[in-house]
Amino acid sequence: MPVPKPKELWVLRTLVAAGAMLAALPASGAAALTPAEAELAKKFAAVMQWQGIYDVAVNGAASRSGANGFHLESRYEATGHGAFTLERVADDGEDAARGVFTWRGKGEARGGGVGTFSDWDQRGLGEEWSQEFGGAAEQERIEFSLSLNRKFATLYPGVPRRGTAPTMRRTGRMVSAQSGGGSQVSPIATTFPAPIDVWYLGSGERDDARRWQVVSNGPGVLAFTYEGPVAGRSQRFEVSGAGVVQRSRVILFPVYEELEVEVTIADYAKWRPLGSIADPKKPGNTLVARAILKNKSGKPKAFPAVKAFRFQLLDTSREPGVCLNWPLNAKDDDYDLRLAVASTAGDLSARDQKLTVTVPPVDAEQRPFAEATVESYDFGARASLLVVCELEDGREIIGLMKEEGGKQDLVRLPKMQGPDWIAEVWRKEKKVEKVAASHDDEKVEGQKHNGDGYTLYEEYRGWAVNGKHTEGDPEKKDFFVLNLIGADGQKGINLFEALSKLRVHSKLKRSEMSQTARLMNGNHRDAPRRVDQHGVWVKTFTRAGLGDNGADTPMTKAGVAGRPSITKGVGILARGDAESIFNQPFNLPARDTIFAYDRAIAHELLHSVGVEHHGSGDYRQILGYVSPRNPFNKVGRPYYASSPDKPPTVVLDEAGHDLAAKDYADYVKMRAFADAVLQERLLGEGRQWITRNGVGYNGINSAQQYADTHIELLIIYCFMHLNGNVGVEHGEHAGDQDCVMRYYFAKFYEATGRKDTLYAATPGTERIGIDICHAGTGTGINAAGHKPQSRYGNAAAGEGDCFSQICPNDAIPPRKVKK
How many CA atoms lie within 13 A of 671 on its CB side? Predict the structure, then answer.
């Protein structure tokens, strides 16, 4: 008798098992199957065991703002993956004959999740917290069942075994109002069980039909997928008002005792995808995946005939461009990872990402194998590689990667722990193994708001900066400045970087950030993203173009602090522009004037990230000299006034001396000069005026009085005057004297408690700030002990502490301010 071939043995076993079940069925209880259904039943009856591998990703987010500064934001991200084994449930043969099959088993689920929640009002009352969990759990009562004549398939993920769920840790703070005024800060610290996310394959007729389509061709490598909203997530995390989306993939495959397909990739653990900045249409790098049919025992043995090796890329990312900003405004939807024909030739279908090798070679041990080349066109590319070896006898064997400890997993490109967007090698390098891909929570000690607007994935994917690929820093806030000034602007940008503690990228080319849109993560489709995040440009203007004699940072919204998204740009006059206020000494000491231009750039850039002045209310004042001979002078002593007919404004130097009295000697000289030049002519005009209008007209009774009036009003008052900015208490000049956000232009300040009295700041004593303050308290010339008084006092309520205001994150609504 001839020895049966492997194919014949498998078919024989199938027929024997199916026949035994059908023979045991009582005739009266049998449900008729169509011939096609009966044939399908024979195939499924032969499967005693299934192996399963699954991935699941759950994401939700919400953001709402309202009146009184109310803002709520919540985010949740979790992933799960696992493996399980299902065994055929014994029956009396009736179920199999009716085409009804059930397999049950258990497995292990691994995964974790993170969430953040914040809810604040304008008063600073509310709460914020973050939570995370991660670990493994045993999953039991997993079930796969079929009803062939009803065309129905279900796959139930089971439940975690009691006591195996990991713990969710929640930490944060709550700020509540106290009955007697003020607020109370209470810490939030709690733990509770958090079952690992397992797959969900939907419900309803549409999902039923999709699952049936997967199994309708018989047992083999079965891939079930689902993407859509998931109801009832709130029991695990409150995402108020958000749609929570789950993406699941479960792959089932029959277990064959003697055969397996192992997939290997050289340097797999170190490989990460790259794109090409120089030519986005060319791959940045490649990898070669080899699938080989092996005996599980490892012993030499004849192999069954192979019909084909099939390689298919699943869940391939299709993010536009090659990174977040290159090329700008990319609109392509090309696959970021693409199959190519490797050394083992095959039939490539690029459209559906499939490569079929129908004539596989064999290695030195006569083991059939095939290879596929995967090309990367994006720095953030990802996919799963499904490898199936189809034997001539109809069996399908999935190709898996072997990990440490002998565990098997799907071929994830790049190597990732479960469903993710980020290469494991990068996570390890940056020490962010447990950080969610949607994470945006970089902290700078002393700044109120966390994050820079870029998710962890976006920082991994990176940007084009000066023609090269640049990644973000998960521990620092990244910020982008398009420097259109050139070398003259760099020192100011560097000062801004040093003061803000932001990681500033200022070597951008014009082609790497749009001057109009300024969007720095515009190349986006499906990847984790929090907000449209913008950069800022700095540019030289003329006086006419700027509409200012120094620098300006106009916003698209009024009444709020700055954010990159609402900043039109930073404009400044050229460093050497004679009209620029930054080339005027004001009351600065000579050693400070050299910093004016660079400080101005840093000052304006700080406006773009939410930092405001120390207060408001400063004004410009012009005071003319009113001598005792001025006809409006009723007090008999010289003084300064805003108008000859207005009350005197007392102007004192910082030693307490009246400047009008001190300036009397200058008045005497100017009056003598005016008399010498104009007296004779004005006396003649006065005699004609009196003759024409009559003595006493308008209060002028003599030619001399006519001459005095004209000299005092048109010469002395107009040309002998004080002109400059007045800094008020809690105004723009208030607070820490060394802060870059404090003004230094004032010539006068108001005397405390004395009406219509100004002090003139001693020349050369206003300091230019090139630091940033951490409190609103006045220092130096603004200190309480400064003589004769604090010039401008503390910063206004809610201002000062400029460092805490820094927020480059467009996802954080700007606070309301007085403009």
Answer: 18
Residues in the chain: 819
| CA 630/CA 713 separation, integer angstroms | 7
Separation CA 262–CA 249 (nearest Å): 21
Confidence of residue 342 (pLDDT cuts 50, 70, 90): low
The H or E element spanning position 58 is strand 49-65
Work out whether strand 159-160 and strand 100-120 pair parallel, antiparallel, or are unpaired.
unpaired
For residue range 95-132, what is the model confidence (pLDDT) as tens digits? 778 889 999 999 999 998 888 888 888 778 889 888 88
Residue at 82: amino acid letter: G
Angle ∠(102,104,107) on CA atoms, nearest 5: 150
118, 148, 638 from 91: Cα distances, Å: 54, 16, 117
Burial of 723 (0-12, 13-18, 19+ CB in 10 A): exposed
417 vs 422: CA distance, rounded Å? 9
Cβ atoms of 722 and 640 closer than 8 Å? yes
Q: Assess contact for 724 and 703: CB atoms under 8 A.
A: no
Which residues, in sequence order, are CB contacts of 213 under 8 Å at separation 6+? none
- The residues facing 399 across adjacent strands are 261, 387
402, pLDDT greater than 90: no
Angle of helix 35-45 versus helix 6-23 axis, rounded to 10: 110
Q: How far apart are CA 683 and CA 401, in angstroms?
A: 110
Q: Does residue 595 sit in helix, strand or coil?
A: coil
Cα 707 to Cα 686: distance, rounded to the nearest angstrom: 7
Dihedral over Cα of 273, 263, 334, 201: its sign: negative
Q: How many CB atoms lie within 10 A of CB 382?
A: 25
Burial of 429 per CB tally in 10 Å (0-12, 13-18, 19+): exposed
CA dist 323 and 316 (Å) reads 16
Taking alpha carbons only, the member of 599, 561, 565 closest to residue 580 is 599
Given the DSSP bridges, would you call strands 152-156 and 536-541 parallel, antiparallel or unpaired?
Answer: unpaired
Amino acid code (one letter) for 342:
A
The predicted structure's pLDDT at residue 343: 61
- Give pLDDT, residue 8: 37
d(CA 174, CA 305): 67
Rounded to 10 deg, the angle between the 703-710 and 664-693 helix axes is: 130
What's the confidence (pLDDT) of residue 245?
85
Question: Residue 563: pLDDT band by 50, 70, 90 thresholds?
Answer: very high
- Taking the C-alpha atoms of residue 262 and residue 389, their distance in angstroms, rounded to an integer, is 10
Ramachandran class of 634: left when φ > 0, alpha when ψ lies in -120 to 50, beta otherwise: alpha
Report the pLDDT value the prediction gives residue 528, as an integer from 0 to 100: 93
CA dihedral (789, 791, 797, 803) positive or negative: negative
CB of 455 within 8 A of CB of 508?
no
Q: pTM score, two decimals?
A: 0.87
**Segment among 31-40, 60-69, 403-412, 754-763 with least mean pLDDT:** 60-69
Torsion, Cα 296 300 304 310, to 10 degrees, reads: 60
- Helices then strands, each counted (H, E), the chain: 15, 34
Residue 636's identity, in one-letter code, is G
Which pair of structure tokens corresponds to residue 434? 């447990």
**Which residue's entry shows tokens 């030049």?**
677
pLDDT of residue 59: 85
Dihedral sign computed on CA atoms, order 794, 795, 798, 801: negative
Check if the beta carbon of residue 805 is closer than 8 Å to that of residue 561.
Answer: yes
- The arithmetic mean of pLDDT across residues 552-570, rounded, is 95
Q: Are 202 and 248 in contact (CB under 8 A)?
A: no
d(CA 503, CA 496): 10
| The two structure tokens encoding residue 20 | 């035994």
Closest by CA position to 129, among listed 63, 186, 209: 186
In the block, tokens 């004539």 appear at 359
Supply the DSSP string of 482-519, one letter for each residue. EE-S-HHHHHHHHHHHHHH--EEE----GGGS-TTT-B
